[in-house]
Every structure is written in C-alpha cells, then in structure tokens.
Amino acid sequence: MMSSKPTINYGLEGIYVDESSISKVDGQNGKLWYRGYSIEDLAERSNFEEVSYLLIYGKLPTQKEYDEFVKKLKERREIEPEIRNIIKKMAPVAHPMDVIRTATSMLVMYDNDPNNRATEATIDKVITLIAKVSTIAAATGRFRAKKSYIHPDNSLGHSENFLYMLTGKKPTKFESKLIDLMFILHAEHSTNASTFSVLVTASTLADVYAATTSGIGTLKGPLHGGADEAALSMMNAIGNPDNTEKYIEEALEGKQRIMGFGHRVYKTYDPRAKLVRSYLEESLTKEPSDEVRRLLQIALRAEKLMIDKLGSTKGIWPNIDFFAGPLYRVMGIEGQMFTPIFVASRMAGWGSHIVEYWHNNKLVRPLEYYSGSVDLKYTPIEAR
Amino acid sequence: MMSSKPTINYGLEGIYVDESSISKVDGQNGKLWYRGYSIEDLAERSNFEEVSYLLIYGKLPTQKEYDEFVKKLKERREIEPEIRNIIKKMAPVAHPMDVIRTATSMLVMYDNDPNNRATEATIDKVITLIAKVSTIAAATGRFRAKKSYIHPDNSLGHSENFLYMLTGKKPTKFESKLIDLMFILHAEHSTNASTFSVLVTASTLADVYAATTSGIGTLKGPLHGGADEAALSMMNAIGNPDNTEKYIEEALEGKQRIMGFGHRVYKTYDPRAKLVRSYLEESLTKEPSDEVRRLLQIALRAEKLMIDKLGSTKGIWPNIDFFAGPLYRVMGIEGQMFTPIFVASRMAGWGSHIVEYWHNNKLVRPLEYYSGSVDLKYTPIEAR
C-alpha cells in the first residue's frame, strides 16, 4: 500500500517558495538590501515612510510621490472608537500581540471593498494598515499600562509619532532617529515564518486583513518575534555588567541557548545588528539612566565574549534581536512592546509581499507523508 | 554575484512538509481515512464528537472517554458577552469569516495560560476552541440576519446544536444527520492551505488561538473555502433544471471554471462528494421545497454532464464543494455560512495537527529566490 518514503522538508529548510525582488538577504556575507538599496544607506539616509514606499512600489519616490504617500499615512493614523474599545478590553488581560492581532483583524469592517485585489486597491489597503497598526500597537501599550489613549500627532513623522503615542512624550531628535532606525530595520526580511504565513493566507486570495492577521499571529511565537524580549530578560538577569562573563560562560556550559545569537540565514554578523550596535555605543555617550547604562554595558560585554567563544568557530553571531532590547530601553519602551514594534514596521514588508505574490498567485498546498494505518475496522463503542 | 537559479516550488506543489498520522488522502483511488478509519465508516457509524476525539487522540474513545469529552464540549459551548458583542458589531458589515476570525482571535483573553504547550494543555485548549467556535459561527449567522443570539442547548449533540443555534429551530432527525455528516466530512483533510497555515503559525510556538486564527483567515480565500458557495451561486444562476446542460456547455466553451470540480489531490471522484451526493438523493425523497428540489436536480444533472465531458478524459471530477451547497440549502443554511461551517468542523483537524506538530516542532522558514538588483546607489530625494 505504502509507496517508498519521500523526502520530507521539515521547516522547509533550503526550499525556495517564490521568486521576489523585494529584499535580498546575503547570509554568507552579512548583507541586506531592500529593492537593491543597502540597509546601511537606508538606515542612515532614508526614513521609514520612504522605505515603505520603496518596498511597496519597488523604487524610491519623487518628492511629489513621497508627499502624497506621507499625506495618506497621516490621514489614516487615527483608529475608530470600536477598535480602541476592543484594545481597552483585551490589553489588561492578554498579551499585546493577541490584542494587536484581534484589532487588526477587526479593521476589515471599515473597508467597504476588502476583496478588491487590483494592485492599486491592494496598495491602498496596505497603506491603511501601515498607518493604523502603529496606532493599534501604541494604544495597546497605553491601555496595558492603564494610561489613556493618545491621538496621533500629524506634526510628527510615522515612527516618532508611534513613540509619542506610546510614551506620551514628544521624542528628542536622537530618540526619533532611534525609533525610525528600528522601524527601517524591521520593515522587511524576505520569507521568514511570519511573511511566509502572510503569503500562505494570501495565496487563497483571502484579503490583506486576513493575511496580515496571520502574520501577526505567527510573529507572536517565541521562536520568531520574541527573541529580543528574551535577550533583554537575560541581560536583566545578569544585572551587573561585571557578572556578564560568568553568567554567559555558565549558560554556555549548561548548553543553554543565548537568545539573539545565531540565525537560520545569517552565518556571519547580522548587518542590522551592526547598525543597532553603533547606536548603542552612541547612546552610552548621551547620559543614559543607570539601568540603561548597565544594560548597554552588559550587551556589549556579552557580545564580545560570545564572538570570542562562538563567532569565528561555530558561525554563531549576534543578530538584531540581541541589541534591539537595550536600544528600546534607551527610548523607555517595555519588553512586551518589542514584538508589536516589529509588527508595526513589518506591515510594510508584508504588504509588499502580498502585492508581489498576487501578480503571479499560486495556491500554497503542500503534502504530508502519511505514516499511520489504513483500513482499520470500526468497532461500535460498546465493543471497545 | 547571482548564483544559478534554484528550483522554485511555487505553491509547494508536490513538496512534503511533514510526516503525519492524522489523515490519509489517496487522490488516485479516491479514498480518505482519519487515523486509519475510512471516511465512509465514520460518516455512517460515528458522529462529530467521536471523530474529533479520534483525530485528536489517535484512537476511538471508550464510552467513559467519550462521555468525558462530550461533557467538556458541552460545558464550554457558551461564549462570553464580550465575544457576542464583537460579533454583533461586526456581523452586519463584515463577511462572516472576518467576524469569526476576529472573535476566535479574541478568545485568547479568557485563557489564563495560553502559552502552555504541554500536550494535555494543548488538547484542552483545542476542546475549548471546538466547543466555542461553533457558537461563534452560529451567532455570526444570527446577528448577520438581524436575529437574536440563541444560547446552546445541551440536550443536543454538537453539530445539531450548531444548526439549532443558527436557525432557531430544533432540527429533525434527518437534518441532524445531515449537519453531522457535513461536520464529519469537513473535520480534517491533511495539509491543505488553511491547515498548513495553522502549522506555519504554530511552528514559531505561537499559541493555538494564534494558529487557528491564521487558519480561519486562510480558509476565507475563494481558492480555498469559498468554492461551495460559488458552486451554489452557479446553480442558482442556472435556475431551472432544464437549463443545466446548456449553461454548463456554454460555460465550458467559454473556458469558465466550474467551481466544485477538480482538486489538487483527488484525481478521481472525491469520496466525500459521493457521500454528500447520496444524501442529496435521499433529500429528494423527503418533499423538499421547490427551490431546494430545483437545486438538487440541477446539481445532479450538472454532475452527470461534467463527468461525461471531463471526468474520464481529463481527470476532473466533482469534489465535496460541488454538492455541499445544495445539501446546506436542504437544512435552510445561507451561502455565506458554508465556509463558517467548514471552520467550525475543521477546528478538530487543525487542533490535532497542532498537537502532532509540537511533538517534533520545526520552525517553518523557507527561502525566496531574489531576482532584483543589488548595490543601487541611493540618491537624495531632491536629485530624483
């Protein structure tokens, strides 16, 4: 009955699922490009709005295109009272990612033509999602901390407005740069689990709300979106910079995994981690609080030791998750809000992937190898 | 710079992603087994509760195990007032699948340990989801039709209670058999798009609410869950049974796709379609309304013609979606509720797959082939 066992591609490791021109991750050389532009250029010279435009449209905008795009984003930042209510109900008892997933799923009710899959209509929905999911994420942080909702401030750029809506304080110029950096670095990263789950959902021609809701659910998992929070927890557990080496060495001896090190694709230093690291060093010069100073010192000492122990020998290098937490702490952001920021920025990449995939859609329908029995005899319950 | 182009597995066609002992679909011979038991035996001799137990635990229950399982399901049918409220808000303006996705996503807030992934804890959450998502689906149908919520009736079995909560009428014995048949037939079908999307989300170790929410979003797409509704729309468009042959022939000449025919896996008659078909014939003997009688006649005449034209020559045979719509109409169920029934019953299969996958979890992280440029020069916006 059974044919010989086929190759099973667990985790789809090494399997190509699509052709794409959105981003290239060169894991061997530690390079990353969005639409052909290096992440270093974009991090230093662009901003999140322009990067979103680039990812979606495949080219850098002219001034006129940029202005129109930014105008749309600003006009759509506000979220409806019903969305705020659901966030308020859920935020005190559920994980922020659960709240954001539910609220994003609910956004579909304000779209009177959600199934319009024409390219321009799809892009328009993606712009709405980029605009509103940041507000949803910030509102989740507010209600979670039992604080009141802060309306968007259209005098601010996209990511600094997010930081303002979350913290209630107008960011300094340096903080604005930091949050925008994190939004840019998290905007896109090819078919990782969450982006792939967006495509699986989109491949049935379900709408962009359904697809991005899948992405948010997938990003919640600790093997994916939660690594930055886990890395920060470790640094908090280390507590004092002078404990760093002892803690790490003991963890390695106990075969504990150090979160924020190693990556399925990067086999060298994650280029995003390098960028975050440089801003960590700059943050140290800006008179941080004692807590933050300790964290930054722990992060840098742990990195040095880990590279000595594992980098050149085992190809296990820091990834962005290792340094993200300390940098978020520079901005006063709590650990449970890290993955929500990932969501808010990745909405640009997810949207771009949906637009691209629908140009040449193919339903995702893999196979399983069945290893159970067949033709078992059904016995009535009395006879079992 | 570019290496040679790798094989790209669009839609993951022919790619095995996992080993499983939950269900075997034999597409060449038109057979289907759940945990080794033929779908024909289960459809005739079992019921949805027992099938759910079988899928989850991998064996048929003893009487005691069955009674405990059914008791848990009954105790958990009721949905919280906040869930009812969100359904009431969304149902008048959003597609039922959007409503059910959002409400299911929200269920996580009533679980005080959603991230407990121990097998027994996972199964317990799956039981909760099977119990409540049926109620969510029925409530969505009620509020959509501007009718009031109907509380579960614990004197009724799982699927007949669903039908009662949806229609407000206690089902006849025949109707109870029909709805239970549809729940059994939709409970599981290996790694189709929605089940696979559940696994992609679960593979990050996100919780069962996140994973099943992805499944619901994926099932919404017209290439997946909506085919039964689309097939019914065609039958309604045919209107009079005597128009059937002319309509189908013109559609085929115009290269229109006939929904409910052809399947990625079944290359012969879908065994589930055969079962539904036999109940359609039985329904014709039960004095159906004129509308339903016409539909049943259209379905059977269309099937005959399609098999003559496409079955033996092109391997395009009826699948379950072709006959499901007319049978749902026998029960008085509206088209937009067909996919929600699919969700309510597939919750058993999705849950079983999560339990199984977590025994040997592997993060799903495929690759894309990058076909764009690299190292483009960033020009400032003024210079574009």
Structure write-up:
The structure is a homodimer of 384-residue chains. With 384 residues, the first copy, chain A, is mainly alpha-helical. Chain A folds into two domains: 19-221 and 335-360, Citrate Synthase, domain 1; 227-330, Cytochrome P450-Terp, domain 2 (Cytochrome p450-Terp, domain 2, Orthogonal Bundle). Chain A is 56% helix and 5% strand. Chain A is built from 16 helices and five strands. The first copy, chain A, has helices at 39-45, 48-57, 63-75, 81-90, 96-106, 119-144, 158-167, 173-185, 193-202, 208-219, 227-238, 244-253, 271-284, 290-314, 320-330, 338-358; strands at residues 16-20, 23-26, 31-34, 37-38, 367-370. In chain A, strands 2-3-4 form a three-stranded antiparallel sheet. In chain A, strand 3 and strand 4 (37-38) form a beta hairpin. Chain A is globular and about 70 Å long. Chain A starts with 15 loop residues before the first strand and ends in a 14-residue tail after the last strand.
Strand content of chain A: under 5%
CATH homologous superfamily assignment of the largest domain in chain A: Citrate Synthase, domain 1
Instruction: Please compute the radius of gyration of chain A using only Cα atoms.
Output: 22 Å
Q: Secondary-structure element sequence of chain A?
A: EEEEHHHHHHHHHHHHHHHHE
Q: What count of domains describes the coordinates of chain A?
A: 2
What's the CATH architecture of the largest domain in chain A?
A: Orthogonal Bundle
Form type of chain A: globular
CATH topology of the largest domain in chain A: Citrate Synthase, domain 1
CATH class of the largest domain in chain A: Mainly Alpha
Classification by helices and strands of chain A:
mainly alpha
- Number of helical segments with 4 or more residues of chain A: 16
Task: Walk across the major sheet of chain A and give the strand order.
Answer: 2-3-4
User: Largest interface, with Cβ-Cβ < 8 Å?
Assistant: A-B, 105 and 105 residues
According to DSSP, the number of beta strands of chain A is: 5
